[in-house]
């Protein structure tokens, strides 16, 4: 089956469930270059990075979930990330390159190379928010705007825009990528390898080269197994914000070796603004009080 046929074979709802790999639930989308419909902040600039300066030893750090130079509570660190990141407006991006299994019919599937790109902008507190979710190689995108009471999704499949969908808003933990970050941190044996100073900010580097699980079936990618050459580097500020995360590994999927690459980055924090898109405003205006919200493009 060709890529074009594959795109036509997958309904929008099924595509939404395929946009993340095993164990991770995230909104997001877009790439670093503003594109039509992407979450484009209207003010604010990326904070320039100062030249890093070595500052201290692994035993000197004080971050939630980290003790004696090791990550001992991934959930605590992820919770600190959510709280500190949501304290101000922000923009984040997650990119995942992997081979995944996608359905081609009721009882058939195939392996496809997919790049999942998720980009989020949100005001302080995580609402309102806007994000773009894109799965390159399959041909699905979703533009989303939401606030504390409603969410509007504009899906597109194989270049064809579908009708907007109105539903429930996302939880703050999804907007801040807390669930995924907690999962990633929990799967690696992370230790503190050093600290640096950029301006008046102290950053802590965590590294892992081994997994914490014995059974790696379905790890990171549904249907994957036999992970090797796992490497991960995470940079965390002292308030707990995971500023960047990188994971690489090799795995087996349907008898063949595949490559995995995951990156996450806080692009900006503070002075990020954006507007409600016209398509969302129009969709909400046409929704009556008697209509029940339909499913959105919320990843599984």
UniProtKB/TrEMBL annotation:
Spans annotated as Disordered: 29-59
Composition bias, Low complexity: 33-59
Superkingdom, taxonomy of origin: Archaea
The protein's name in its UniProt record: Outer membrane lipoprotein-sorting protein
């Amino acid at each position: 089956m060709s890529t074009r046929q594959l795109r036509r074979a997958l309904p929008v709802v099924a595509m939404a469930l395929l946009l993340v790999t095993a164990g991770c639930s995230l909104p997001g989308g877009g790439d670093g270059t503003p594109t039509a419909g992407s979450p484009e902040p209207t003010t604010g600039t990326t904070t320039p990075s100062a030249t890093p300066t070595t500052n201290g030893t692994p035993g000197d750090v004080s971050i939630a979930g980290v003790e004696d130079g090791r990550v001992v509570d991934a959930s605590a660190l992820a919770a600190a990330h959510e709280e500190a990141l949501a304290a101000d407006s922000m923009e984040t991006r997650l990119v995942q390159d992997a081979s995944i299994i996608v359905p081609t019919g009721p009882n058939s599937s195939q392996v496809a190379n997919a790049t999942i790109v998720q980009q989020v902008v949100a005001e302080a507190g995580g609402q309102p928010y806007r994000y773009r979710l894109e799965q390159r190689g399959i041909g699905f995108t979703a533009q989303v705007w939401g606030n504390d009471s409603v969410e509007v999704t504009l899906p597109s499949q194989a270049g064809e825009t579908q009708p907007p969908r109105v539903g429930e808003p996302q939880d703050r933990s999804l907007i801040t990528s807390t669930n995924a970050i907690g999962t990633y941190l929990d799967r690696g044996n992370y230790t503190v390898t050093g600290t640096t100073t950029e301006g008046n900010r102290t950053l802590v580097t965590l590294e892992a080269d081994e997994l914490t699980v014995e059974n790696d079936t379905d790890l990171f990618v549904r249907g994957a197994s036999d992970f090797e050459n796992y490497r991960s580097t995470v940079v965390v500020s002292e308030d707990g914000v995971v500023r960047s995360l990188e994971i690489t590994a090799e795995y087996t999927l349907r008898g063949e070796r595949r490559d995995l690459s995951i990156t996450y980055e806080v692009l900006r924090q503070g002075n990020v603004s954006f507007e409600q898109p016209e398509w969302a405003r129009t969709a909400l205006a046409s929704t009556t009080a008697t209509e029940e919200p339909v499913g959105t493009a919320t990843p599984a």
